[in-house]
């Protein structure tokens, strides 16, 4: 099976949807922050391993606690994934922190600040031009 096959893309999106649902609705670990999202999932073509990219909108301690909580619940998450999906093999999940959402929010804030202060960016009138 090719790495970017239609089947692999479909499996990636389905695993991402189910992982999001399991983390949001099933896990009751207080270490896992409520603003946790699964940004991307890459399942190996042989369905043995899975990399789940996790984004947490919070402090660095909340991000680390969330990853710790998810890694401790990986057995439960894998079992739930096996119950919900009909796959030949249930992949072994590895959680990886992804800060792309926080980076995007920071860039949007900086762009908004630039638009809020247009007077600071305009040039002062040149007295030689007015004559």
Précis, in short:
With 131 residues, the protein is an alpha+beta fold.
Describe the structure.
By secondary structure, this protein is an alpha+beta fold. It has a single domain (6-121), classed as K homology (KH) domain (GMP Synthetase, Chain A, domain 3), CATH 3.30.300. It contains five helices and three strands. The chain has helices at residues 6-26, 60-72, 74-84, 100-116, 118-121, and strands at residues 36-43, 49-56, 92-97. It has a three-stranded mixed β-sheet, sandwiched between helices. Helix 1 (6-26) crosses helix 3. The longest helix is centred in the first third of the chain and has 21 residues, at 6-26. 19% of the residues are buried.
By DSSP, the count of extended strands is 3
* Architecture per CATH nomenclature, i.e. the level-2 architecture: 2-Layer Sandwich
Please, what is the average pLDDT? 86
At the fourth CATH level, what is the homologous superfamily? K homology (KH) domain
Please tell me what the overall shape is.
globular
Structural class: alpha+beta
CATH class: Alpha Beta
Report the β-strand fraction as a percent range.
15-25%
Identify the notable features of this structure and list them briefly.
GMP Synthetase, Chain A, domain 3; 131 residues; alpha+beta
